Amino acid sequence: EVMCLGQCKMLATLWLNRCTGVTNVSSLGQCKKLTRLYLDGCTGVTDVSCLGQCKVLALLNLSDCTGVTDVSGLGQCKMLTTLDLTACSVSAEALQHVACRFPLLEEVRVSLCVNVDDATATCLAEACPRLRCFDVFGCPELSDAGIEAILHHCPALRDLHLSECPSITAA
Question: In 3-state terms, the chain is what percent helix, strand and coil (to 5)?
């Protein structure tokens, strides 16, 4: 476990990539200066609600954390600019709840999240006008309507990954 890391009060960046034995990250909520956290591939992690205590967190990579199903506890991370939830099993409702609370988001990666739909994309678009990168590779529920919302509300968009989204029909 990473329980002792909570004692690192000055910790700003932490890489725990592919540490599959990590299951409990609750102590990281005590790292008040944490700005970048890479938990990608930590398949044993299921609860990330404690990270909501990391008020200056700007980058959170939870890609391939297949046990993560809820990110609504992150709502207090108002400084978040980059969120990677690739291949997480997060519900559309949880994604909408979180998306609408992060107005500074610039990069969102939700590839292979089968629950991403038009309502999620619309919520993100309306709440995050600074969005520069939107990666929805392999999101079967996302259609033209969701992409239109992103294009309409996100004038800063530079990178858009739409591959393997079978419900998208217009180019």
Answer: 25, 10, 60
Encode 12-34: b = buried (16+ Cβ within 10 Å), e = exposed: eebebeebeebeebbbbbbbeeb
Query: CA 129, CA 38: separation in Å to the nearest integer?
Result: 25
| pTM tops 0.90 | yes
Reading the chain (171 residues) residue by residue, the pLDDT tens digits are 576 887 888 999 999 999 999 999 999 999 999 999 999 999 999 999 999 999 999 999 999 999 999 898 888 899 999 999 999 999 888 888 877 788 899 999 999 999 999 999 999 899 999 999 999 999 999 999 999 999 999 999 999 999 999 999 976
